[in-house]
Design a protein that fits this description.
Layout (H helix, E strand, L loop, with lengths): L2 H10 L9 H11 L10 H8 L3 H13 L3 E4 L2 E4 L4 H10 L2 H16 L4 E6 L2 E7 L16 E3 L4 H8 L3 H10 L13 H14 L2 E4 L6 E7 L8 E8 L6 H20 L5
Helix pairs in contact: 2-4, 3-4, 6-10, 7-9, 8-9
């Protein structure tokens, strides 16, 4: 074993499974149950989504209410703005507002298209930042913190293309698939081949799979083999149809990704 391999091994094995706090993990599962589809939940619904027993759910929710991260309205519960303080620390610590945002905005204006920066959150892709495009009358309804499929979006496949084979195999095998449109690929081996293509060519493109009439294009921030974040755009199919149009948007995206990489943005 080389010195580097030993260091990596030590870093990966610095704790044991028995060191993990199961109660804290359950609390995080409760927080994760709330999303755009289920912003308000009853105790029973939280229990169903988290697969925790009612007594445990009740104690965890009471604790979260007491600390101000969850509020109760009638029989339902929802997250409070205080939850944003957790993500805010990440955003400020990584210069998202002062470094990343201006870069995204500048290249977004050049393309007249919104650019999103995303990373992996376990089984999904999550938006870390989005450009602000002045005068834009098109929005796809996603915000910072929105979660996307890893398997059926350009951003997701590019993120997977940048991970090691064992990670990719696990997500392709166990990740959820949904027929978002008639063109959504539901064949896992075919999705794996699409990920390999993205890794080989350095970008991912998905048309009509996640949303009918929309093409997604994504590139890695850094090396296609090791990038922790990617940037991408979504546009009507006609905008990215044809080699010349696609090459233009791809070139601008890659320039944006290179500039972000040079800032040493940490994901």
């Amino acid at each position: 074993m080389t010195g580097r391999e030993k260091l990596m091994s030590d870093e990966e094995n610095w704790y044991r499974r028995s060191d993990i706090s199961s109660t804290f993990l359950k609390g995080l599962k409760v927080l994760s149950a709330f999303d755009d589809a289920t912003p308000r939940l009853t105790l029973a619904e939280i229990g169903k989504l988290t697969e925790l027993d009612r007594a445990a759910v009740r104690r965890l929710v009471i604790t979260l209410v007491d600390f101000g991260y969850v509020e109760k309205t009638g029989k339902t519960f929802s997250l409070t703005p205080k939850i944003l303080t957790l993500s805010g620390s990440y955003m400020r610590g990584n210069g998202v507002g002062v470094v990343v945002q201006p870069i995204l905005n500048r290249y977004s204006e050049e393309m007249s298209a919104e650019i999103s920066l995303a990373g992996v959150a376990e089984t999904e892709a999550v938006y870390i930042a989005k450009s602000i495009l002045a005068g834009s009358n098109i929005s796809f309804g996603f915000t910072v913190g929105s979660r996307l499929s890893l398997l059926q979006t350009a951003i997701g496949r590019m993120l997977l293309a940048s991970r090691d084979d064992s990670f990719v195999s696990d997500r392709v095998k166990n990740g959820s698939l949904r027929a978002y449109t008639h063109d959504s690929i539901m064949d896992r081996p075919l999705i794996r081949r699409e990920i390999e293509t993205a890794r080989r060519q350095g970008f991912a493109i998905v048309t009509n799979e996640f949303e009918a009439g929309i093409t997604g294009l994504a590139v890695p921030v850094g090396s296609p083999m090791t990038a922790k974040t990617v940037i991408g755009i979504s546009a009507p199919v006609a905008v990215l149809r044809g080699n010349e149009n696609r090459a233009h948007y791809l070139s601008v995206l890659q320039q944006c990704a290179n500039e972000l990489d040079r800032t040493q943005f940490e994901s």
